[in-house]
Specification:
Blueprint lengths: L4 E6 L1 H18 L6 E6 L3 H10 L5 E9 L10 E5 L9 E9 L3 H11 L5 E9 L12 E5 L22 E4 L6
Parallel strand pairs: 2-3, 2-5, 5-6, 6-7
Antiparallel strand pairs: 1-8, 3-4
Bound molecules: inosinic acid and magnesium ion.
């Protein structure tokens, strides 16, 4: 798979160090709150598992799976819930774990959906953010790294379901898309 990469943006050590910093920050902010960490499948799963292993406070985990319509490299923001969370988030502190915020439309939808269940709070933690791609006003509480408006893969992020298991994040060679 490495031969398919044009460039590595964040290597394994860089990712692990940043995840450790985020875990420390979130552990401090949520001390005594027993938060529910909701992973957005499938992209958030690698980040989430690394993050929670480095967190030092009690927490619960849950998973939300969405399917978005249309093209796999663009988001329409029109999503359907494929697998809902199992736990009751009423009066709970929820932290949503996303791989990347692109247009922000998916996250906007999730945020509104969660608020209907009256949690004590909802915060968003995304490994990557593409600020130039936002199409909606969005507040991301914890961000790993900012990236430009380009398509990235690895560490949970896929292209046509491939490359999620790379331990680093990079950009694919042009010819891979053709
Ligand atoms: P949004 O609704 O445009 O913010 O889309 C967010 C979702 O699109 C992410 O959770 C990813 O699954 C996917 N996505 C957006 N940008 C990329 C990328 O550069 N690589 C891989 N997946 C991406
Ligand atoms: Mg995703």
């Amino acid at each position: 798979m490495k031969a398919d990469m044009a460039k590595i943006l964040f290597d394994e050590i860089t990712l692990q160090n940043r995840v450790e910093q985020l875990a420390a920050e979130i552990s401090r902010d949520y001390a005594g709150k027993n938060p529910v960490i909701v992973c957005i499948l499938k992209g958030g799963v690698i980040f989430m598992t690394d993050l929670i292993k480095k967190m030092t406070i009690p927490l619960e985990i849950d998973f939300l799976s969405l399917s978005s319509y249309g093209d796999s490299t663009k988001s329409s923001g029109v999503v359907r819930i494929k697998k809902d969370i199992d736990c009751d988030i009423l009066n709970r502190h929820v932290i949503i774990i996303e791989d990347i915020i692109d247009s922000g439309l998916t996250l906007n939808y999730i945020n509104e959906y969660f608020k209907q269940h009256k949690p004590a709070s909802v915060k968003i933690c995304a490994l990557l953010d593409k600020p130039e791609a936002h199409k909606t006003e969005i507040k991301i509480d914890y961000v790993g790294f900012e990236v430009g408006n380009e398509f990235v893969v690895g560490y949970g992020l896929d292209y046509a379901q491939k490359y999620r298991n790379l331990p680093y994040i990079g950009i694919l060679k042009e010819e891979i898309y053709n």
